[in-house]
Specification:
The complex is a heterodimer. Chain A folds into two domains: 2-78, Beta-grasp domain (Ubiquitin-like (UB roll)), CATH 3.10.20.30; 87-158, Orthogonal Bundle (DNA polymerase, domain 1), CATH 1.10.150.120. Chain A is built from five helices and five strands. Chain A has helices at residues 24-32, 87-94, 104-117, 123-129, 141-158; strands spanning 2-9, 12-19, 50-53, 56-59, 72-74. In chain A, helix 2 crosses helix 5. In chain B, helix 9 (214-220) runs antiparallel to helix 10 and helix 10 (227-235) packs antiparallel against helix 11 (251-267). In chain B, 48% of the residues are buried. Classes of the chains: A alpha+beta, B alpha+beta.
Chain lengths: 159, 275
């Protein structure tokens, strides 16, 4: 039996039906059509499926979709600010923080959760924020530098 | 196979459903149950949930701490009164896992997970079980020894707040800052006139479930926390342990490094990143 659920996705109300036991990751990709969120392990281990639920990072693969009813979900598809890229997206490009790109949506959302809460993070804060996200290409340093760059550029913009 | 999802406003009703329904599993944060669902575990036919506010309640009063089983690691990190538990909560996964992983779920986490449960064991916690006909309290040691027998719903855990600086924790991992345990050690080391009185030590990943180091506790009684004082405890550090081989470490390696890290913990020599 399918259950109807409604939630806010990147600022817009969406409604869909979910099978019992469906996770949020599959629901976003297969029912709602948001392909920006990626699945890696479906075990809550790799972090590539990270989305924000009510502003905090959550692993969509181990989140029961039904529990998101009435809540706000953010994916990397909603990261742009109008016609402009989010400072994190620009910094990831400038710092070559994406190689194969598979971890990038999760990395960006984990980093956004950090910057939304702490606009001026230390390097240690950044390392902790992305420590649940696995990247097999970059060695992490370009990603850490990109997040720090994005924080600095956003601070300058706000000043 | 489609899974039934049943949500109950009261924990007691959720507990009844859990005990009555065939193939029912209780879902808290999802890090264990949803993983099994994603792997199409055929034993799961029904997911039981509860929205009972008491399930996520934190209470700290008169030296006693009570944590609803649905309290997350992130909620513990946000609670200043629980600062002694912050190193333990921070050791559970990355930020996204900590927003989901619960106190109650950690009690069921198979080795090498379950570092928070080991900390609760060192804190002499009791577990409150919810049932359709009322609640039942039992020591965590006893609960852990039979946690795999039958469907039970933990509603909360409670323990006496440790004396200032009496609680210590170390998690040994290969990856920093987030890694799965090679082992973890939690210790409550109250002292009277500079000598240990009533120590409780628990290990994570040194057996199928968190385990007390009872021989080491006895050997510490009345001793000072210096090299000579802790030596007898280190000699019996392995008593009661049954570590296993896994992708993180071999049982041999776990046994080799246990006394080294226990020594450092007891002497307060662990570097900050570990504690």
């Amino acid at each position: 039996m399918k259950t109807p659920i409604q939630f806010r996705l990147n600022g817009e109300e969406v409604a869909t039906f979910v099978e019992g036991g469906a996770n949020l990751l599959d629901t976003l990709r297969e029912s709602v059509g948001d392909l920006s969120v990626k699945g890696g392990c479906w075990q809550g281990t790799c972090g590539t499926c990270t989305v924000l639920i009510d502003g905090v990072p959550r692993l969509s693969c181990v989140t029961l979709a039904e529990t998101c009813a009435g809540h706000s979900v953010e994916t990397v598809a909603g990261l742009r600010r109008g016609a402009d890229l989010h400072p994190l997206q620009s910094a990831f490009m400038e710092r070559f923080a994406a190689q194969c790109g598979y971890c990038t949506p999760g990395m960006l959302m984990a980093a956004k959760a950090l910057l939304d809460k702490n606009p001026n993070p230390t390097r240690e804060n950044v390392v902790d924020a992305i420590c649940g996200n696995i990247c097999r290409c970059t060695g992490y340093e370009p990603i850490i530098n990109a997040v720090l760059d994005a924080a600095r550029s956003d601070s300058r913009r706000r000043a | 196979m489609t899974i039934n999802v049943k949500t109950f406003p009261r924990l007691a009703d959720a507990a009844s459903a859990l005990s009555q329904e065939r193939g029912a599993r209780f879902l808290a944060g999802g890090t264990l149950v949803m993983r099994a669902v994603n792997e199409a575990d055929p034993s799961i036919e029904t997911i039981v949930r509860s929205t009972d506010p008491s399930f996520v309640n934190i209470s700290v009063s008169s030296g006693r701490v009570e944590l609803g089983a649905g309290v997350t690691m992130a909620a513990i990190l946000a609670e200043r009164e629980l600062s002694f538990l912050h190193p333990v909560a921070r050791a559970v996964g990355g930020p996204a896992v900590r927003e989901a992983a619960t106190v109650g779920g950690n009690l069921f986490a198979p080795s090498p997970y379950g570092d928070f449960a080991a900390a609760l064991l060192a804190l002499d916690a009791t577990v409150m079980l919810a049932g359709g006909v009322g609640q039942r309290e039992l020591p965590l040691d006893e609960f852990l020894s039979r946690r795999d027998r039958g469907a039970v719903l933990v509603s909360s855990v409670a323990f006496k707040r440790p004396a200032s600086d009496a609680f210590r924790f170390v998690k040994v991992t290969r990856v920093h800052p987030k890694g799965i345990s090679v082992l973890s050690i939690s210790a409550q080391l109250p002292t009277a006139s500079g000598r240990v009185s009533g120590a409780r030590i628990a290990y994570g990943a040194m057996g199928p479930a968190p385990v007390r180091a009872k021989a080491a506790e006895r050997a510490l009684e009345g001793r000072t926390l210096d090299s000579a004082g802790v030596a007898p405890a280190l000699a019996v550090a392995h008593d009661g342990t049954a570590p296993h081989d896994d992708a993180i470490a071999s049982a041999w390696w776990r046994r080799e490094i246990l006394p080294i890290h226990l020594r450092r913990l007891l002497l307060g020599e662990h570097p900050p990143r570990h504690s």
